[in-house]
Structure formats: C-alpha cells, structure tokens
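Service request form, structural biology core

Requester: graduate student, group of Dr. S.
Request type: structure prediction, single chain
Budget code: on file
Notes: please return the result as structure tokens.

Sequence provided:
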Amino acid sequence: MNRIKERILPQICIVYTRYLIGGAFVFASLIKIKGHRFTTESGEMYPIHSAWHFFETMYQSGLYWKFIGMGQLIAGLLLMTQRFSKLGALINFPIILNVFVITLSYSFAYTPVVTGLMLLGNIWLILWEWNEIKIIFNLQPHIDTGERLEKDVHWQFLGSILFVFTFTYRVLIDQYNIGFWALICLLIGVVGLIVGLYREGKRKIRLYQQH
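Core staff response, request fulfilled:
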C-alpha cells in the first residue's frame, strides 16, 4: 500500500473519490433537512412492501428524516474537506452500508449497482487510511508524515468550493437539475485537477533542486 500511495494516479483517484461520495451525500442530504420528499408524489398509496411506501414512512417521521439528512451532510462534508476525510470515511461507512442493504431489500432496478460501488469506494477510502485509523481496533498506528500530492492544501480549498456550490444550490433550488449540478462540479473538478498537477510539478522541481 505504501508504494501505491506514492503514485500520482491512485492519489488523484482517492481525492476525487472523496469528492464524489461526499458530494453525492451532501446533495442528497439537504432535501431531507429541508423536510421534502425524494419525489413530488406521496408513496402512501403504494403497497406496504414497496420502496415508495418505505420512504414515505421515513418522510412522515419528520425528525428521523431530517436526522438522516444531517448524518449524510456531516459525513459528506468531512469527506470533501480532505483534511478530515479519515473521520468522514468512518462515519459514512455505516450510512452507505445501510443504504446499500435498503436498495437490495426493495425493488430499485439497477440502484444497488450504484450504491454497491459507493460502498466499495468507501471501503477503499478506509483501507487507504488503515495505517492510521487501525488505532480504533487497538492496533499500533503508523502516522504518515510524508509529503505527496494528496496532502496539498489545494485539495482542501477545492473541496470547500465544491461543498459551498453543492450546499448553496440545494438550499436555494427546490426544482433542481442534477445534470446542471454535475456539469458544474465536473468543470470545477477538472480546473482543480489541472491546478493540482501543476502545483505537484513545481513541488517536485523544488525537491530536485534541493538535492
């Protein structure tokens, strides 16, 4: 794992996996916090064993519906900050595991594929940080103090931009366009990637000159 962590491509994948999972949960959380349904219609008249009836029951609970949203918002934010991504990955794991089991329990077409990939992505994030977070299992941690692309403060700044855009868009817009949101996030992410790679190139040049 230590060798993999020194390679640029895996580091970029880790950084953007945090953005992707975190952003998805922030996006999904705010509709619950605002007290809205996933859809415009009620699921009350659907069969009791259907997914729509299940979500209608959670929605009608009020406080519990908002509590789920707050949990998703906190986990998503922590992941997107990069700085607190270890905690975010640990908090998000039981949430995404629960979501995955729900999509398996009801008829969600291909949704379990999406939630399953998100679960695998979250497991990958935990394995990436295993050397440090294994302390929670009473194992000796190894604190990584090395410098590499993933630890550049630039990714924290980029995560803040993505979070603020997602949060603001979902708070202000009820009739949202998920395609528009995804496109803007993609553009921000691409620009951020270019800047991040440029900064990494300059860092390596400085290290080369010092030696």
